[in-house]
Amino acid sequence: GNFSGKDNYSAAGGGFVAGPGASYAFKVLGGTANVSGGRFASAGNGAFVMEGNATITAGVFTGAGASGFSVWRDAVVTFGTSDMDDDDLIVAAASTGIAVETNIPSGYRAANVTIHGGTFSGGTYSNTEQSVYITGDGGNRNGIWYGTSQAHVTVTGGYIYGQHNGFDYSAGAGATTVANVVQISGGTFEGGQRAGFLFERNHWANDMFAVCISGGTFMGVPDHNYGSYYLNGAIGTNDNGLGGDIKLRDIVLNGYNNTNIDVRYYGSKTDTTPDGTWDGTNNSGLRTTTAAHAKVEFFIP
Known about the structure:
With 301 residues, the chain is mainly beta.
């Protein structure tokens, strides 16, 4: 079936209306929902889940506004399956594919999001097979925007694409109080103009590292600065101290399946032969490793 949301007016401060009071093509406020097909399109934001569970194995979710799918407090959302065609599930919007929302009120838990497969896009994107055509807006355009340091995000597969960044880690500096909240063991993360994965903020506090990677492919534009201090590349970093001191070994989940993780690096996104390999215990910073290359792959040697 086809389902549509109607909010296309501006909030008082500008921008599309969002949150539990807005209308969406798909909205869960408590309870459980299972979706295995259909088209959900909105002139504003596409879908919203709060205080409920949703399992999305197929379908098309699009929004002409900020996000294709927003998850907020006490939301548990699972996307895709491990053996699916990623084109069978598409989440896309003008700014962000999936928004992991911030501002969690006291007494509530942040979201829990798991991605096994599917395509998640922010910004200009088209898929002729599924008749999806999105024009990017003027803001940041990310496949996934991660705005709270408490939300759990697990990615085992899928294609995460942003016209700017594939995954934008934007949790507040020094706010991480839970270890390993973002775990990536597979999937492809691509930034069309910036980074496959961008550490917009540092990802640690009290010696607990929030982002742990044991697999996956990351692609971006190497050595390309925007603003005054962001470095892009396969995995980019904020170079003004909020994220610039992250070491490669900090983000590698060594000990995964009782073995270590190594990292291959490539000169371009299309290269199939790596330029070399780093050991996962490499103590060099992201400035000189992942931000300096167009593609990196994490693997068990």
